[in-house]
Design brief:
The protein is built from nine helices and eight strands. The chain has 206 residues and is of the alpha/beta class. The protein has one domain: TIM Barrel, CATH 3.20.20.70. Strands 1-2-3-4-5-6-7-8 form an eight-stranded parallel β-barrel, surrounded by eight helices. The two termini are 14 Å apart.
Length: 206
């Protein structure tokens, strides 16, 4: 399966663990056509997250989607996730690749920096750029030019993910500029109907 489509990222507040809300919401996103799900939680202990991660992976496999863990390579290895996503402050992508082996997905945040993307291109499975719009989840993130997407597509031979304040309306232009994946948090999980909102994103790739 190709790395392409709607990439839904969980959030401890918007997809809470209490009463299994996270599973309900993630399954709704998958039913709507999400192709990748990322578990993003930098604070909860691995012991608490492990059963959640295992169940999320099972859900993803039921819908033929990929399950990715943000930052925490040890958790990804323990739950046998399909891959890991790393930011600038996380483990080095080169070290992570050694630990994960050659077959796992490794995503790397490159912000607005195509040179960073080039420097990790030998070990990365995909690279992510953003924020393209003001993001409610990361209010301090710097907004970058959409030209970065064009440059990345002509420079790199890797799938490219766009992130940051993206709604279905905003996503259309980013997909036309070459984004293979659109990563979303708020605009998906805050939607009244998550299935329908996911479908709006998924249609842009069909």
């Amino acid at each position: 399966m190709k790395l392409k489509g709607l990439y839904a990222i969980t959030d401890p507040v918007l997809t809470p663990y209490k009463e299994g809300k996270i599973f309900e919401k993630v399954e709704a996103a998958l039913r709507g056509g999400a192709k990748l799900i990322q578990l993003r939680d930098k604070k909860t202990s691995i012991d608490e997250l492990l059963p959640i991660a295992i169940k999320l992976k099972e859900l993803c496999e039921k819908y033929e989607a990929f399950f990715i863990v943000n930052d925490r390579v040890d958790l990804a290895i323990k739950c046998n996730a399909h891959g890991v996503h790393l930011g600038k402050a996380d483990m080095s992508p080169f070290k992570a690749r050694k630990l994960l082996g050659p077959d796992k997905i490794l995503g790397v945040s490159c912000y607005g920096d195509v040179e960073r993307a080039l420097s990790v291109s030998k070990v990365a499975s995909y690279v992510a750029f953003g924020s393209f719009y003001p993001s409610p989840t990361k209010p301090d993130a710097t907004c970058i030019s959409k030209e970065v997407l064009k440059k990345a597509k002509t420079t790199l031979d890797l799938p490219v993910c766009a992130i940051g304040g993206i709604t279905p309306e905003r996503a259309k232009e980013l997909v036309e500029l070459g984004a293979d994946m659109i990563a979303v948090i708020s605009s998906l999980w805050k939607a009244e109907d998550i299935v329908e909102q996911a479908k709006k994103f998924a249609r842009l790739f069909s």
